[in-house]
């Protein structure tokens, strides 16, 4: 086994020891004892036949009892070991799930989520993490095989020096198995994109939320067709590779079969010549058969360990892509320190208690990994403290990207984002985000009891019913509680057998309530928060939003940022930012922008005309 295989096996063994040392050691002892029993069976069979042939019944009987005991040990100890390590395997899977979650969320920014390579690695890891269920078994079996093969080699050496070559004949199938597994692994990497796209289309075709559009637009057949094409592409790649890999493995096994036959013939020749007894013939046949089984088991263990190594390698690659995304977020940024993802321990400044000047973007450029054109380029913008700011622009103008930047979810590839004159990269991001209240268009439908679905917006007050009701009131969702069977205690969503099913608008109201949970934010962000609401409901919501903005502006100098396509609400903002092609095209209040008769006036007139 290579250093990589041993490293992966050792990593999993250490994880298992941390989970439950007693069960891990018990499983190891039982597996090793069970594996060692089989070579001892062959030795005792030799003793049994030699004693019987020599007319020594007592010795033959004792040898027979020993054979029976060893057979029972070989057949049962592995089963008892399985009982010991089964739970450990489950815990190891949970541990790696946690590691994957930690790796995925190990960056202060989100640039790595924009990389297709990251998505492919995570998708394969989600499948391969189940390998840990057999990974521990492979590690334990590998140790047991090492012990058994050592005993087997000693027995072969005692029979004939040439038989020491028999384990060497095991090398071709081992190398062939390793080569075949690498071929399969490379093929899985190559087919990852097609598999990911096929799975995405499968989820699209089976999800209730997308069912309406698929049927209305007659897309069912097209989705199935595309799913079939992607799946056939992935399957064709994998099938070809599996066929070649099976042929390689078969050739390796044939090489060993030739060595096995030669070993048996060698001892038979000596027996015929009178130089060997019947016990030696029985021993070599039994031991050679065991070597064959050991080789087959070793090939299987090797394949399992190679997959295990791939799991740890891909986990390292995910960590690497996250770090690369972090560097892309902010070239030259210092590595994260313990407890704070923004820089070395102790270097991050706390978020201000109150905003006095506001948030300023200076020469900001943002380019997603692999993107040919920047999403934002040369952007200079001041969001004054206490102001209500509306951001408008066509799709793709960079509105959501701008919101992510001021929230610290992305870092500019050039330029700076300043909070009261302090670069956002020098602030404690956890501290800054603790002072943000946000609602997004692609909000999360948290399938929790209703109280907690809203309460997570301010985690320390997760179950604070008065705070939750106040937040729902600010979101205009007071009536929603009365519509739920058990009020705020009602479980939501399909994760619960008795969970309440909500409409899109009801889910959005809960998300808005979540956004209004924090009492003292420095930044309030609503990014298309009313997409599921009608125009009247959105206008009423924005009026409440203005009251909330005025309240927090007086208390903390907070900047309130609102992204919307509806100009009836946008015109009420203190400052309107018009984005076009990743730049600030216009800036001002509604009256000034209308008077300027530019892009904003054109967009406003187009929308107003639709209501006339």
UniProtKB/TrEMBL annotation:
Keywords: ATP-binding, Membrane, Nucleotide-binding, Transmembrane, Transmembrane helix. Residues 328-350 are annotated as: Disordered. It comes from the Bacteria. The keyword RNA-binding does not apply. SUPFAM superfamilies: ABC transporter transmembrane region, P-loop containing nucleoside triphosphate hydrolases. GO terms for cellular component: plasma membrane. GO terms for molecular function: ABC-type transporter activity; ATP binding; ATP hydrolysis activity; ATPase-coupled lipid transmembrane transporter activity. It holds the Pfam family ABC_tran. Residues 331-350 have a biased composition (Low complexity). InterPro entries: AAA+_ATPase, ABC1_TM_dom, ABC1_TM_sf, ABC_transporter-like_ATP-bd, ABC_transporter-like_CS, P-loop_NTPase, Type_1_exporter. The chain crosses the membrane at residues 28-49, 61-86, 134-155, 162-180, 247-268. Its main location: membrane. It is found in: Cell membrane. Gene3D superfamilies: ABC transporter type 1, transmembrane domain (1.20.1560.10), P-loop containing nucleotide triphosphate hydrolases (3.40.50.300). It is a multi-pass membrane protein. This is ABC transporter ATP-binding protein. It comes from Micromonospora carbonacea.
């Amino acid at each position: 086994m290579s250093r990589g295989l041993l490293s992966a096996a050792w990593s999993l063994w250490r994880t298992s020891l941390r989970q439950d040392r007693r069960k891990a050691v018990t499983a190891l002892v039982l597996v090793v004892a069970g594996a060692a029993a089989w070579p001892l069976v062959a030795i005792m069979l030799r003793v049994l036949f030699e004693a019987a042939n020599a007319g020594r019944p007592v010795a033959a009987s004792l040898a027979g009892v020993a054979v029976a005991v060893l057979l029972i040990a070989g057949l049962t100890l592995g089963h008892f070991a399985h009982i010991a390590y089964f739970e450990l395997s489950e815990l190891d899977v949970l541990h790696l799930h946690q590691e994957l979650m930690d790796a995925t969320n190990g960056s202060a920014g989100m640039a790595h989520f924009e990389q297709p390579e990251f998505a492919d690695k995570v998708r394969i890891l989600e499948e391969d993490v189940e390998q840990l269920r057999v990974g521990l078994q492979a590690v334990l079996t590998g140790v047991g095989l090492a012990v058994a093969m050592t005993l087997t080699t000693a027995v072969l050496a005692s029979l004939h020096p040439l038989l020491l070559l028999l384990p060497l004949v095991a090398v071709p199938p081992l190398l062939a198995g390793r080569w075949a597994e690498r071929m399969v692994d490379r093929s899985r990497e190559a087919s990852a994109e097609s598999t990911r796209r096929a799975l995405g289309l499968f989820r699209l075709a089976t999800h209730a939320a997308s069912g309406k559009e698929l049927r209305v637009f007659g897309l069912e057949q097209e989705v199935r067709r595309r799913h079939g094409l992607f799946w056939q592409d992935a399957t064709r790649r994998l099938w070809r590779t599996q066929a070649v890999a099976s042929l390689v493995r078969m050739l390796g096994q044939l090489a060993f079969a030739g060595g096995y036959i030669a070993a048996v013939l060698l001892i038979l020749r000596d027996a015929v010549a009178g130089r060997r007894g019947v016990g030696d013939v029985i021993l070599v046949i039994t031991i050679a058969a065991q070597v064959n089984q050991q080789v087959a088991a070793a090939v299987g263990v090797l394949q399992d360990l190679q997959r295990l190594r791939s799991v740890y390698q891909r986990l390292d690659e995910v960590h690497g892509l996250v770090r690369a995304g972090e560097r892309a977020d902010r070239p030259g940024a210092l590595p994260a320190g313990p407890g704070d993802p923004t820089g070395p321990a102790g270097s991050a400044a706390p978020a201000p208690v109150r905003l006095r000047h506001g948030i300023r973007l200076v020469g900001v450029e943002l380019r997603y990994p692999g993107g040919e054109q920047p999403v934002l380029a040369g952007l200079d913008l001041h969001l004054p403290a206490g102001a209500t700011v509306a951001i408008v622009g066509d799709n793709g103008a960079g509105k959501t990207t701008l919101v992510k930047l001021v929230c610290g979810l992305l870092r500019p590839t050039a330029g700076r984002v300043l909070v009261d004159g302090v670069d956002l990269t020098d602030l404690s991001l956890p501290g800054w985000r603790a002072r943000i209240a946000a609602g997004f268009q692609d909000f999360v439908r948290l399938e929790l009891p209703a109280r907690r679905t809203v309460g997570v917006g301010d985690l320390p007050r997760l179950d604070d019913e008065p705070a939750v009701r106040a937040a729902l009131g600010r979101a205009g969702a007071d009536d929603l509680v009365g519509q739920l069977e058990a009020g705020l205690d009602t479980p939501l969503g399909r994760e619960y057998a008795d969970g309440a099913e909500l409409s899109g608008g009801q889910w959005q109201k809960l998300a808005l309530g979540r956004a209004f949970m924090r009492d003292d934010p420095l930044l309030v962000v609503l990014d298309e928060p009313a997409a599921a609401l009608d125009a009247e409901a959105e206008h009423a919501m924005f009026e409440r939003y203005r009251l909330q903005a005025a309240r927090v502006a007086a208390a903390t100098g907070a900047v309130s940022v609102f992204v919307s396509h509806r100009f009836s609400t946008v015109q009420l903002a203190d400052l309107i930012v018009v984005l076009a092609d990743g730049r600030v095209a216009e800036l001002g209040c509604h009256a000034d922008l209308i008077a300027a008769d530019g892009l904003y006036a054109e967009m406003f007139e187009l929308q107003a005309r639709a209501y006339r």
